[in-house]
Amino acid sequence: MNRISSPLGLVSLDDRRRPEPPALVLVAHGSRDPRTLNTVHRLLDQVREQRPGLPVHLGHIELNEPLLPDTLASLGTAEAVLVPLLLSRGYHVKRDIPEMAAASAARTRVAAPLGPHPLLVETLHARLIEAGWGTDEETRRTGAVVLAAAGSRDPDSAVDTRRTAHLLSDRLGVPVVPAYASAATPTVDTAIRALAARGRDRVAVASYFTAPGLFATQCAEKAPWIASAPLGTHPAMADLILHRYDQVANLRGAGPCQLAAPPRGATSHELPALAV
């Protein structure tokens, strides 16, 4: 290997020619709840700690600064991978983020949303254990979980949430029913009643939200037994953000504004276990 001298010692010519990695732009929805913004900033810190030297930025779809178009404008014509801090496909992933990316001068590609993925199930499981979920026979016999999500009118969003519910059910060995705070059915109340009718009277509400907020609080208040905290800053979340980044950053010959997502119209049974 050829080396040259520098004030810092010998440097590989290969290292000098190695291109800078694309920037990681974490795309958050935005919220009026200050706890949400605090959670997002802590997640960014975790990502930076895990990947020193990787340029990491934040852009919001709405409500908080910096807004995504402003973040992209600050990058000029640099290359960037946009990682949605969203848990399923929907309008923001399919339309808003790609359109904002296409309108910028930056050379962008858009990663898949965080879910479905086993790392999310790992986080959901950990949050339920923290809330008091048991592993005893009584819990397996009479327990169940309502996976409380924000909700979307996009059918692909429901497909992704059902897949997460299926993976969590496999992990816990009890029924897991997805339910929604808005825009989709069933509601959390309806799901709880349906499980009670099946003899499942120890029902936990698993918060399928990235951070605390109005919907997460409302869903937790409906829990007849325990309610877990939002996904938050569990270490697996930073791992998953970097995984989604790597999936796109490592592509060869990919064009700009590529959206890495499961095939349109795929059913929950057709989605791969790792959602890669």
From TrEMBL:
It comes from the Bacteria. The keyword Transmembrane helix does not apply. Keywords: Lyase, Metal-binding. PANTHER family: FERROCHELATASE CHE1, SIROHYDROCHLORIN FERROCHELATASE, CHLOROPLASTIC. This is Sirohydrochlorin chelatase. It comes from Streptomyces doebereineriae. The lineage of its organism: Bacteria, Bacillati, Actinomycetota, Actinomycetes, Kitasatosporales.
